[in-house]
From TrEMBL:
Signal peptide: none
Alphabetized Pfam families for the sequence: Acetyltransf_1 (PF00583)
Coiled-coil ranges per UniProt: none
Every N-acetyltransferase domain range: 122-265
Keywords: Acyltransferase, Transferase
Gene Ontology molecular-function annotations: acyltransferase activity
Enzyme Commission no: 2.3.1.-
Native source organism of the sequence: Streptomyces olindensis
Name under which the protein is recorded: GNAT family N-acetyltransferase
Top-rank taxon: Bacteria
Amino acid sequence: MDHTALLALFDRDLREGARPDGPDARVERTGGVVRQVADAQGWNGVLWSALDEAGAEAAIAEQIRAYTGLGLDFEWKLYGHDRPADLGQRLRAAGFTPGPQETLMIGEAGGPVLDAEPPKGVRVLPVTDAPGVDLVAEVHEQAFGADSTWLRHRLLAQLATDPDTVVAVVAMAGDEPVSAARMEFVPGTRFAGLWGGGTVEGWRGRGIYRALVAHRARVAAARGYRYLQVDASDQSRPILERLGFMPLATTTPYVYEPGRAAARS
């Protein structure tokens, strides 16, 4: 895979050419910025921007006005190659709070990732209904220690209105859900995104995460998608590199919450 060409393809198809990620979302293009607007339980934020030093602060201020006017918190998803080079500093100065930096990684759906299998006693099941979504949400809460209300809302809506764009799976050890993940397809592109892979404490280090990546890779390859995209944490990056994924760029979520921003000003 050619690093420069692949990053340009990613930017064009998944950022500048972004599509709404759910039935209640819309994508808007205005003033060199591509943003998604959804309800309060959906993802709201800036996906792509083409800014220069002269216009960056005005563009940032416009996004703040647009989202706060709707009563929404939002995220500016900043990549390491975005311009201007000091965009992260400008976002912090405007009241955004940076989250943990992750690594954008791309793998071939038909590559070495296909070979991983779950450990003995663990089976991978597809999620197609509300009880299955509850299992995914239960794993999410245990693995990440975070509320899963938004995840239930999103998965249920996707399965009900556009099931061909999402695949969710849960790994079961007997009757216990021990790991879960999802994959979202982007029609008209060669990319499928891997999201939410998490394993509950006590079951980590046994190859379950690898197995869920491999399961989703097989599904993506069967549907004709070439590339798998992941925003990898420091914990998952080495696993993905062993599975043939290549790091392309860093990505950092800058979150704007009006109450917090006002307190800092």
